[in-house]
Amino acid sequence: MLKLSCNATDKLQTLFSHSHQPDPAHRRTVSSVSCSHLRKPVLDPLRATVSADQGSVIRAEQGLGTLADQLRLGSLTEDGLSYKEKFIVRSYEVGSNKTATVETVANLLQEVGCNHAQSVGFSTDGFATTPTMRKLHLIWVTARMHIEIYKYPAWGDVVEIETWCQSEGRIGTRRDWILKDVATGEVTGRATSKWVMMNQDTRRLQKVSDDVRDEYLVFCPKELRLAFPEENNRSLKKIPKLEDPAQYSMIGLKPRRADLDMNLHVNNVTYIGWVLESIPQEIVDTHELQVITLDYRRECQQDDVVDSLTTTTSEIGGTNGSASSGAQGQNDSQFLHLLRLSGDGQEINRGTTLWRKKPSNL
Fold first, then answer.
1. pLDDT per residue as tens digits for the range 41-64
2. CATH no., domain 237-315+330-361
3. What residue ranges do the domains of the chain occupy?
4. Could you report the per-residue pLDDT of 161-175, keeping only the tens digit for each?
5. Catalytic residue positions, numbered
6. At residue 333, what are phi and psi to the nearest 5 degrees?
7. What's the CATH superfamily of 70-236?
8. What b/e string do you get for 258-290 counting C-beta neighbours within 10 Å, with b at 16 or more?
9. pLDDT tens by residue, 263-282
10. For tag attachment on the chain, is the N or C end more exposed, with fewer CB atoms within 10 Å?
């Protein structure tokens, strides 16, 4: 049992009053986690006004929060303008080589982004919606996602993810992430994304109003901060449309019920899996995904049927690499992707991927 010296103790004692005490060795291991990671910072009056749930604000001002808040290994940074959280890679989040899948990484990015929004008092019933957005039935939807993974975490590894958001023109916002291996401090990945607002009732895009912008900009870095500060980096590359005939395809993919999210459409992470379905097996056997960039063109609903098309390309350019890595390797492979509706061929998503040769120990 986690040894707490904060307000969660009484609740945990009530919940587990009939359970046995752990052995001393186990207690020494787990209690080494600092309780400073478990406490949520007290919100100042400005942050308190952001939340429409007054009960949640009162609990946060008292330093209580929910039980989940107190147990979560995440918190705002000292300046309050970014958020860090640690995650343990679980057995069900790894593939056959015992390292996390790219879908796992994408889900963790989404999770830490949502937790960041909740930590500053935004909605708990949607993906980072502000009070004005909820009043006007507005939601955030993904426009672009770019992920670079320099080293995949293995089963049991602890990953720390830092995230922050910033304004992105008049029609959206951006969110960036940096991933680190907690054991070594090594940067193992970076990601950036663009988001736009959609009316939940009409499903039409809408400009970000000054009211909404003012609500979230107070929690954003005052100066531009980019996960990819390199000039002409790969995350900025325009993605050309894949034209028929494609070299590889997977036809007739259908969304599962579990693929739908709180916004009542297929979640952005599902698209990653669909894109990878048409990658040739010989690449999957000998390479691992290093970079993926996706442009989201339209929503996908539960009854839609999707085709995944893939073609080899050499026109997209190299990877940014990590702080210590070089340029694209000669054994790397690049692909251009298209997801479209099977019926009328409407474009759902276009993307690119870069694959590197697998390490010899895999």
1. 444 433 433 333 444 444 444 455
2. 3.10.129.10
3. 70-236, 237-315+330-361
4. 999 999 887 778 999
5. 263, 265, 300
6. -130, 140
7. Hotdog Thioesterase (3.10.129.10)
8. ebbeebebbbbbbbbebbbebbeeebeeebbbb
9. 889 999 999 999 999 999 99
10. C
